[in-house]
Amino acid sequence: MSEFSGHLPGSREYRRLLVGLFFGGVATFAQLYATQAVLPAIADDIGSGPASAALTVSASTLGLAVAVIPWSLVADRVGRVPVMVVGLLAATCLGACTPFAHDIVLLLALRLLEGAALGAVPAVALAYLSEEIAPRHVATAAGSYIAGTTVGGLSGRVVAGWAGELAGWRWGVASVVLLCIVAAVVFIALVPSGRGFVPGRARIERGPSVRRRILTNLRSRRQLALYAQGFLLMGAFVAVYNYLGFHLVGAPFFLAPAVVTLLFLAYLAGTVSSPRAGMLAVRHGRLPVLVGSIGVMASGVALMFVPALPMVIVGLLAFTAGFFGAHAVASGWTPVAAAPDARAQASSLYYLGYYAGSSVFGWLLGWVFAGAGWPAFLAAVLVMCALSLAVAILTLRTPAADGQ
Q1: Cis peptide before 252 (omega within 30 of 0)
Q2: Model confidence pTM above 0.85
Q3: In CATH, what number does 1-195 get?
């Protein structure tokens, strides 16, 4: 490792890094969810049916989840920034091909590969931050990156939905690709080369093996507790956004689908809360902010029990803000709490748990909603928040765990 101690707030390189990673988050997550807003149009055009069309989202997230650990290994050999650049460029090329897919099999294959390419950014972005930013300011920088992911997730859905409504789903997806080309160019132009990490075959061969680095993380109670945050909280988050629309189109609300789509604008609450959570973590410590964010999530869920639209909207805003605050803290904490040689694998394992939670609970809680109704569904989400909170308090409360 070099003697480089990290960029400090106020420096030109610090600003370039934060803005660059913000746009890297936009380019990644806009593409990841680009098809979600146009699923009915995809089903009608390709004749695949709703379930098969929905797999275009699952395929991309599955590809990302599977690819994060391999990408982290490549990054150890060639460097963090080159891996993120290659992944974004490959994903954008694959994304540009998806509007030309004329059958569901080809479309799913392209989306799977696109998600795998996109995995390069979340696989190493937070490890890169932990190596390039002075340790005391990593949480703030991580919050800025998470804010970019919220803008990307929102813009991918909204841009595709609006363009798809006017010109069809193919143009909807293509419009997201154009947005991501711009974001990727900004990312490549601004993000500084790594100085706090020395890649290379010789360095890795002298250090712990890949298997040992992964096992070191998996044997750490602290790391497992952080992975549990991603698994449980992301699972709760995706489930609420999956099934809230079904709740609102029925009694007593009877909202039009176009109005329900506007609920994705609640993502903006996460854009605000994620960098704020990072700043608060620097000032007050990571654990209090993580606990407080989970509490805000739970309070939002409680408000959504009330069968009144204003209360549901306020609850959704609180729930979203709390989730992204917790995610910003937990994801930024993960590489800081890991051994220096195992940071990339620690971040990758966090995102593996994060997207596994999305896949498992995004599907499983649908059975609760369909079989027992909205109150039982919300009760299950509250249980997940409570489990996450208990794990955090019991495992992460020591000074050493706070990374300070």
Answers
A1: yes
A2: no
A3: 1.20.1250.20
